[in-house]
From TrEMBL:
The lineage of its organism: Bacteria, Pseudomonadati, Bacteroidota, Cytophagia, Cytophagales. GO terms for molecular function: transmembrane transporter activity. This is FtsX-like permease family protein. Residues 20-237, 431-632 form the MacB-like periplasmic core domain. One of its GO terms (cellular component) is plasma membrane. InterPro entries: ABC3_permease_C, MacB_PCD, Macrolide_Exporter_MacB. It comes from the Bacteria. The chain crosses the membrane at residues 21-41, 281-303, 336-355, 375-398, 419-443, 666-690, 702-732, 752-772. It is a multi-pass membrane protein. Pfam families: FtsX, MacB_PCD.
Length: 789
């Protein structure tokens, strides 16, 4: 019997080639998209979970409570890790972790920039980093120890074994000894580095980190397997009281743990509570995958039920000769599973073809895990789910036919069956409309972020790190560079102009409430900073060499002036870090962090000769290439031990929204795919409807109906369904995208034209799809269609 069912299924598949191709293609595209999204989601969720002791690894976070706000970040005192390990028996390992930075590592003639961190001695043991040479226990014990990756060992020494005990020069200043070589980190590791340095060396280089009131690096812990994180959190929360002198009734810092396995996906906090992060994108694409799979399944259901009249006589005969409904359901479900199996095989082929492009789009290294049993279980689950969903309604409908009515030729579908089929088309286009609207809004928000005025001109602004001889001879570097062709102005800034995380509450001014603890961002700059950045001074003046007292004076932004309550801040006293001075100018508010956060009060002080800052160079208009050539010539002459490196601020700014850009591209791709799959089904349905009404069309043409009138007649039913879908989808799309936009402090307005555009696009695509079959039917010779009459 099963063999007979397979034969019938195969014959039906071959006999109805066009509809079989449409069904298989739609299901294959839907499953291929779902598989790609599954691989992406699996990779996203795996970040931070690949360590041997992942369940016991935590990051120490700070909730800073001041000025009516709670700010959460990962910055902690540099001496926190060792203190926690001493104080709490639950802590197995603890290590500090600095920001990842580029430094120049050289061995003889081999000189290159590499990314690395300063870490505590427990780091390698805590994270279970596999070593190819050396011991995790002793690798980071001494200040001159250096641990490098397998990649660096091959670059500088040929192989990991040869690297052990060798010397590497660091920033042309200090020699370090290689004490261990670790296996290259996987691409989805949350922390990416190629070398590690001793933590004590870092604290000695940055002595301010030894003060409890200061915070900068991160702190990571490994708890005992039997330790209760909730109880440990309760003990950890007040830990800084008594150690940090700033903590008072008006300012407090509370510590808590965040599991390492959650840190990547749940990176956003609001009012001290976890408030999403990249997990929102994971959830979004789960929904997208389900939408696309539903659209593909709806195609199958619609086409199968529409063509069910073709198989009504077969069902009637089978029932007359004794076939039970259960066996008929099994037969039709089997046919659906056969089609789904063929579609799944095609989908796997499509995924293999598309993966390189998909990896390039998402900047990942995904691959089909064909050697993992869980993947094959997931494939079987996808097969059963898709086949069952697509084949369930057609199987139930076909098996319910009455043999008497079928064999008499009086079979008619009731209003319920037609309503259900139309409902499926509406649902299909509701999903498509949601994807189109979401894509348009994401694109507009990204365009807004890229074009928003930041309060300075980021175009053609060059940034480079002051290092080596340039840091030591900044004045000479600046003077010589200004004499070279293509250079308009030069300055420097302590922090990256796009990421200023420096905060302080040590600010005093006349009239300040002594009980308030207000957080200000701060930085120091050189002369010509405002000129180089092309900022606007709304009151007062910029720092100037003509005023010798400017070394103790300050610039502030408008937000700081507003927070201080000064009506005219210029000339008013201000003390920062117990250094009294006066405000000489107010700068128009500018963005010094991502647009995810609003502009905060900022204080700027003058430090013309400070080393190791970000040097900012403004080329003459239209002379960026000449400016770069001049910059490279001077850099190689003054700083030959360091490779020439620079970046454009606008390029770095674009990188701030890399995640959003990737999501926008993926949303566009999958929205187009969803529309295409929906149109495949609409195309097949329109073809079937035109076939069913062939004689009606012939009669109408004989009676004088025009081609336009017939096309309108065949199209209007489908267009009504699309219009209903637009009405239903628009409020849902508005709510969903409004929630997404809340993650940005600065955002576009949800204008009505966006929904009109998405609706018009849906109508246009549907009309184009339907019109092909409608026009083909309308142009048919009525003699052929009426010949049998």
């Amino acid at each position: 019997m099963i063999r007979n069912y397979v034969k019938i299924a195969w014959r039906n598949l071959i006999r109805n080639k066009a509809f079989s191709i449409i069904n298989i293609s739609g299901l294959a595209l839907g499953m291929a998209a779902s598989l790609l999204i599954f691989l992406w989601i699996q990779d996203e969720r795996s970040i931070g979970t690949q360590y041997p002791n992942a369940a016991q690894l935590f990051r120490v976070m700070e909730n800073e409570i001041a000025d009516g706000r709670i700010v959460t970040d990962e910055d902690t005192p540099g001496i926190l890790a060792d203190e926690l390990k001493k104080r709490f028996p639950e802590v197995v390992y603890a290590a500090g972790f600095s920001d990842t930075e580029e430094h120049v590592l050289s061995v003889g003639e081999k000189v290159a920039r590499q990314k690395g961190n300063f870490v505590g001695a427990d780091w390698l043991k805590m994270y279970g980093i596999p070593l190819l040479a050396g011991s995790a226990t002793t690798a980071l014990r001494s200040p001159n120890n250096l641990v490098i990756s397998e990649k660096l060992a091959e670059i500088y020494f040929g192989d990991p074994t040869s690297a052990l005990g060798q010397s590497i020069r660091f920033d042309n200043y200090t020699d370090y000894q290689v004490t261990a070589v670790f296996r290259n980190l996987p691409a989805n590791a949350p922390d990416q580095y190629d070398f590690l340095l001793n933590w004590e060396r870092y604290l000695n280089r940055e002595p301010w980190l030894k003060v409890w009131e200061n915070a900068g690096p991160g702190t990571r812990l490994q708890l005992r397997p039997d330790a209760d994180p909730a109880r440990f959190n309760a003990k950890l929360k007040p830990f800084l009281k008594g150690r940090n002198k700033d903590i008072s009734a008006h300012f407090n810092i509370e510590l808590f743990l965040q599991p390492e396995s959650e840190a990547y996906l749940y990176s956003t906090f609001k009012n001290g509570q976890r408030d999403g992060g990249r997990i929102e994108y994971v959830r979004l694409f789960v929904v997208v995958a389900v939408f696309i799979l539903f659209i593909a399944c709806i195609n199958f259901m619609n086409l199968a039920t529409a063509r069910s009249v073709k198989r009504a006589r077969e069902v009637g005969v089978r029932k007359v000769v004794g076939a039970e409904r259960a066996s008929l359901i099994g037969q039709f479900m089997g046919e659906a599973l056969l089609l789904t199996t063929l579609a799944l095989a095609l989908a796997i082929g499509l995924v293999l073809v598309m993966l390189p492009v998909f990896n390039q789009l998402t900047d990942k290294q995904l691959a089909l895990p064909l050697n993992q049993p869980l993947f094959w279980i997931a494939l079987v689950g996808l097969l059963v789910l898709t086949g069952g969903l697509a084949g369930s309604y057609p199987a139930l409908l076909l098996s319910s036919f009455s043999p008497v009515r079928v064999l008499k030729g009086t079979l008619r579908f009731g209003a319920g069956a037609q309503l259900f089929r139309r409902g499926l088309v509406v649902f299909q286009f509701v999903l498509s409309m949601l994807l189109i609207t979401g894509t348009v809004i994401i694109y507009r928000q990204l365009q807004y972020l890229q074009s928003k005025n930041l309060g300075y001109d980021r175009e053609n602004l060059i940034q480079m790190h002051g290092e080596g001889k340039i840091a030591q001879k900044y004045q000479l570097f600046k003077q010589e560079l200004l004499r070279m062709p293509g250079i308009q102005s030069v300055s420097h800034m302590q922090t990256n102009p796009l990421a200023n995380g420096n905060t302080t509450d040590g600010v005093d001014w006349t009239g300040k409430d002594p009980t308030s603890m207000i957080q200000f961002n701060n930085t120091w700059v050189g002369y010509d900073f405002v000129k180089t950045m092309k900022m606007k001074i709304v009151r007062g003046r910029d720092f100037s060499p003509g005023f010798g007292t400017d070394s103790t004076n300050y610039l502030i932004n408008q937000s700081a002036a507003k927070r201080m309550g000064y009506k005219d801040p210029v000339g008013q006293p201000l003390s920062f870090g117990r250094k009294p001075g006066v405000i000489v100018g107010v700068i128009e508010d500018f963005h010094f962090n991502s647009l995810h956060s609003s502009i905060r009060p900022l204080i700027i002080r003058l430090e013309e000769n400070w080393n190791y800052d970000n040097i900012l160079i403004r080329p003459q208009p239209g002379q960026a290439e000449q400016a770069l050539a001049s910059l490279e010539t001077l850099t190689r002459r003054l700083n030959p031990a360091f490779p020439f490196a620079y970046s454009f601020v606008d390029t770095e700014y674009a990188k701030l929204y890399k995640s959003e850009t990737v999501v926008g591209k993926l949303a566009t791709v999958f929205a187009v795919l969803a529309i295409f799959i929906a149109c495949l089904g609409l195309f097949g349905l329109a073809a079937f409807m035109a076939e069913q009404r062939t004689k009606e069309i012939g009669v109408r043409k004989v009676l004088g109906a025009s081609v336009v009138g017939i096309v309108a007649l065949l199209s209007q039913d489908f267009l009504k369904l699309v219009l209903i879908a637009i009405v239903l989808a628009s409020p849902v799309a508005w709510y969903a995208m409004n929630q997404w936009l809340q993650g940005f402090a600065y955002q576009i307005d949800l204008d009505g034209w966006v929904f009109v555009l998405a609706g018009a696009l849906s109508i246009g695509v549907a009309l184009l799809t339907i019109s092909f079959q409608s026009i083909k039917a309308a142009l048919m010779n009525p003699v052929k269609s009426l010949r049998s009459e």
